Amino acid sequence: MANRRIEMFEYRHVIHNMRQGLSDRAIAKAGRVGRAKCAFIRSIAEEQGWLMDGALPEEGQIAAIVRERMRPRPVQVSISEPYDEHIRRWVEQGVQGTTIYQALVDQFGFTGSYWSVRRRVRKLRSTDPKTTCMLSFAPGEAAQVDFGKGPLITDVRSGKVIRSWIFVMTLCYSRHMYAEIVGDQRLETWLGCHRRAFSFFVGVPKKIILDNLKSAIAKACYTDPLVQRSYAELAEGYGFVISPCPVRDPKKKGRVESGVKYVKNNFVPLRTFRSLTDANQQLMRWNMEHAAVRIHGTTYRKPFEVYTETEKALLQPLPDVPVEIGLWTKVKVQSNGHVQFEKAYYSVPFDLVQQELLLKATDSLVKLYRDFQLVATHPRLREAGAQSTVDDHLPPQARAYKEHDPQWCLEQAERIGPHCLEVVRRLLEDTIVDRLRAAQCVVGLEAKVGADRLEAACRRALHFNTTAYRMIKSILHQGLDRKPIEDSPHVVEFPSAYRGGGRFLRHPLHHQGGRP
To answer: Which of 32, 145, 272, 328 has the maximal Cβ count within 10 Å?
Structure first.
């Protein structure tokens, strides 16, 4: 009883009992105050004339006189007080209490305990409290979005452990929310979550309030934030305004911050997830069966009820044509004439090697621009290492080699003549060496000498049982294609057993007179 604090209204009750004629013993027996405190109050009441008839004194009047009469308690000076200037400066800089204590020990030889420094830090912080204000929003005016760390999910099929994130979009008026578990915070994931959230709400709020994450804000700034180009295009397509919070001030989106914590603390614990898809199916059921129909702690109403009755009708309608999500990024053309995007390769005209291009990737296409001019278009590849190459992008020699395949060579040789066709056929049937280039060169001689001379040269080469391109070229160079084959001085009749089999034998006349 002696250590209990007596409130001012209890002083008034004691004075009232004294006016009724009760003794200090009787008042103390009632348990309101002790006899010593009762005697103290009676002395003040008699001195001030409060025991007479009339209105009881006000609590403020009683408090002023009681504080004046009570003996002041001895003031204890903290051993940390002489260092207030340093402690206050460090607190304003956000330095932790343990670090402040160690700095006092190292710099000033502080001999007190850590707890004395901790109490001083708390007292200095309490003298400058940070005040906030409640934000109010009209129905359909705004939504807040954020990512939060999700659970580790082990896929039952692959056994792979997936690190997940929780995306939450909360309508500021009704507190109805959309939540989704994703595997990353990439720009494409961020944009896709927005699209699915708007479909879930069947409408678009006028403003999106968000933090300064890299998927949305390329460069954070208090006055002039730089928005990612892809996110700006999404906002333009859906008709909402991007409103990033000031740097390091997440309280401006406290409703979605609370929503993320609510999902993490209420949905995630004590659940087992078989895969990312299974986790999202469970999350959607929980959101509609529990979160959407709970009594919200601030509005004291069910979020889904407020959404359907008021906010849904005031959201902006979804666009008639789905907004195309485009990812913009800068890429450099490699020496092989391709750019790399998400581990896939896309070709560009060969004269752009080593230049920087602008790439736009949609769900189905990849487009490449140079100086705002479209230079290449490819289907979007999803498999790592996949390659999309347009023949027109290749250098002339590479394009010719690729276009002039074996079938093309055979068709051209058949048009030239039967002997040329036989030469090309033998070249392509070689099972040891790939002779496609030789076949292409043989056919290409037509452009220099004409079909008739090439056919005659091929006939002479076959007579000597050779199909080598250099031999056919030599025949044409020496004009031997114009001479009858019977007039050749080098024609030697071999025994019948060796006819057709002397392709790699030297003529006996070559050995006359020593080494050839």
So the answer is: 145
